[in-house]
């Protein structure tokens, strides 16, 4: 599994960080998404998918 | 497919915690149906969860009030026909589309991150403790809205923005005017002007004497114009207290009317995070709406929504959609996986302050029922005055009692 994020779409809702702070963080400056792990281990696959589906701006893609 | 057409949006709630039964019936017939707007425009009513998310997440819909057809003669009868009268003021990014919206929201996003909001937990805890001490001093009965639900988020947002809480009389009544469905266009404009005057004074003061607060930080970036900054500050102030206040008030009423669910919260304090999500799903507090208008033709769930069509997204109905929430979505169930609700909206306008609101609610509900485990309604439930007349639903007051 690979996670990719699009900072230009991100609206800083924080839903991804709320869902899995091991995978996502937010920039101090403008709150946009910072990807912490591009290839999450199996334990984080479900939360990665949930974060992608919850993202209000569709800024997270799982492939 | 037979089209379901509503000539008027049903807004009367038969039960205090549920959306109007007619809206639920419409949803069960058609997640996307037709709705007549005041000028005769045949727009759309979206009640399905998936469909609401799709519209709110689509860049093909605008939130510029000039583009919207007016929803309802019952409370918008005197709004001028000229769309330019509804032009969003600079800085009111909730009513703007990209790129203006993006530019302004970005200036604030860094202030509302999950990490920053978590760092406020202890401080918010002391505000809640102090307010509960005050409630305790009231000898066994109180209006929970006046004494707790409204003060807590007001104190929090005032301190964060650098607004003097003792000046709340300068915005609280005008905020109510803005949210009251029956307010005339002129009343709204006058209320808005008074709050804006207050905010302009605040901006002038902060420029002369910056403090350790969000408005001073915003001004220090040099990015917004003064007019933008004062309207942004106003938006944060209004959005920051009425919404959470109504979740705390209506949420407490709900829990007192669902003792089995309240028991879960009391027995399992760690359930609070999901409890807050479920209360938000169950109550939504946005009375109906929001609306969006298509800027180009777009197909949603098999329906062709044409450029210029206005769409009402019914959040309370979507949050009860059985296609999304398993079991009986009309039942409050604090153990239900409630994530994915649309109480904070969806798309680029999703609530900027949601992580703050979550923390205020988690701490607020937890401490309230720890400190007052025997809290009870002090009137018959049907006597609790509901905010059926306001854009943000809730309770006007909540008379409660406890063993002093």
From TrEMBL, chain A:
Its cofactor is [3Fe-4S] cluster. It comes from the Bacteria. Keywords: 3Fe-4S, Electron transport, Iron, Iron-sulfur, Metal-binding, Transport. Pfam families: Fer4_13. Ferredoxins are iron-sulfur proteins that transfer electrons in a wide variety of metabolic reactions. This is Ferredoxin.
